[in-house]
Write a structure and sequence with these properties.
It is a single chain. By secondary structure, the protein is an alpha/beta fold. It has one domain: Alpha-Beta Barrel (TIM Barrel), CATH 3.20.20. The protein is built from eleven helices and eleven strands. The protein has a seven-stranded parallel sheet with strand order 3-4-5-8-9-10-11, covered by helices on one side. Strands 1-2 form a two-stranded antiparallel ribbon. Helix 3 crosses helix 4 and helix 8 packs across helix 9. The longest helix has 15 residues.
């Protein structure tokens, strides 16, 4: 199953790289094996950000890790789209801050391209709105980056319906993705998902399984998903991703993973068929 990101066709399930670079991250060997397993499973969208790191002095840790994994992969990676983000910073003391100044975003994008080892970033997304900077100015930096060829596609993250419309206008209709949190436990972005479906913009749920700390216990937290998993003989995580995929043809979940087994299981969600009644049950479940 493929989905569209602008003029690019990518796998309907992506790989979120964040767990490989923050607290509790595995050693590099396992991380690279996880990325390679995703590629072996046919995944062609890998999500990252310059802020996916642990310590203050390692900005871009995940970007560099992904670049090394792609270089060391034995197969063809020409169809892989790496999506990265800028504007959300992690100083290294556990805090997250924002910097949406256009001049900062432009320099951040160029630094990301260098770490990824590319002349032009496949997809670059404004990571999180900065309350001190007008939203149109931040998104305007993406417009400039597109014009300069630093990035090929532009997206936004953690955005409201109004911000989606504003970004679409600033980018002259060239907004291709919105990356918001969405999962069985976090459905407040459903209006944004529906708005993207109406506009034909890709919607990328982050933490689609409930987040790093909660994904393993998804079935314990959501009985309806566990019951359907037992019925189909699959994991609750697969049921969850299959549900999200079928909410709209623009949805591309990006489950974070730090183990080959996890991303291999997630990739099978594209083959799982849910009935209309099952979709209704899951959509109405707590």
């Amino acid at each position: 199953m493929q989905r569209n990101l602008g003029q690019r066709s990518v796998s309907a399930i992506g790989l979120g790289g964040m767990p490989m670079s923050i607290e509790g991250r595995p050693d590099e060997q396992r991380s690279v094996a996880t990325i390679h397993a995703a590629l072996d499973a046919g995944i062609t969208l890998i999500d990252t950000a310059d802020a996916y790191h642990l310590h203050a002095g390692e900005v871009g840790h995940n970007e560099e890790l992904i670049a090394r994994a792609l270089r060391s992969y034995g197969g063809d990676t020409s169809e892989v789209l790496v999506a990265t983000k800028g504007g959300h910073l992690r100083p290294g003391d556990g805090r997250w801050t924002q910097d949406g100044r256009p001049e900062y975003l432009k320099e951040a994008a160029k630094a990301s391209a260098k770490r990824l080892g590319v002349e032009s970033i496949g997809l670059y997304q404004f990571h999180r709105p900065d309350p001190t900077v007008p939203y149109a100015e931040s998104v305007g930096a993406l417009r400039d980056l597109l014009d300069e060829g630093v990035i090929q596609l532009a997206g936004i993250s953690n955005a409201s319906v109004a911000q989606i419309d504003e970004a679409l206008e600033v980018l002259d209709g060239e907004l291709v993705s919105v990356q918001n949190q969405f999962s069985p436990a976090h459905r407040s972005s459903l209006p944004e998902l529906k708005h993207c479906a109406k506009l034909g913009i890709a919607f990328l749920p982050w933490s689609p399984l409930g987040g790093i700390r909660n994904a393993a216990a998804l079935g314990d937290r959501h009985g309806a998903f566990a019951a359907l998993a037992a019925k189909h003989g699959v994991s609750p995580q697969q049921i969850t991703l299959a549900w999200e995929l079928r909410l709209a043809p623009v949805v591309i979940p990006i489950p974070g993973s730090s183990r080959p087994e996890s991303i291999e299981d997630s990739a099978h969600a594209v083959d799982l068929v849910l009935t209309a009644d099952e979709m209704t049950l899951l959509s109405q479940a707590d």
